[in-house]
Amino acid sequence: MALRFAFVAPLVATVAYAEPDAVAGHDAAWWRAASEARAADVETRHAELAACEEREAPPAYDAVDGYVTTGRRDGRLRYVKIRRCDEERAAFEAARADLDRFEEQARGSGVPPGWLR
Length: 117
What we know:
Blueprint: H1 2-14, H2 28-56, E1 66-70, E2 77-81, H3 86-109
Antiparallel strand pairs: 1-2
């Protein structure tokens, strides 16, 4: 029995998975480019959110709605509302959701995982 397994094991190891040429009408290059574009958008939106939070809404302002400062031209006091970066946060979350939907669509279509990397 051991001798028979010795001959069969190399044959099993040489059976390779044949990747399709295209899935859902698109080839590997298209799927990779689409995945990379969405991932780059997520990274860009995350960087924009981080920059906004650092510039506009640092942690020290968490419990504050705004602050008072003097105007440059006339010296009058004016109230400045703290920006909470809601638009940037929404854009980041939308980009992340788009990437997740795309990856789920790819999995559902049977795209090999290596095509998205």
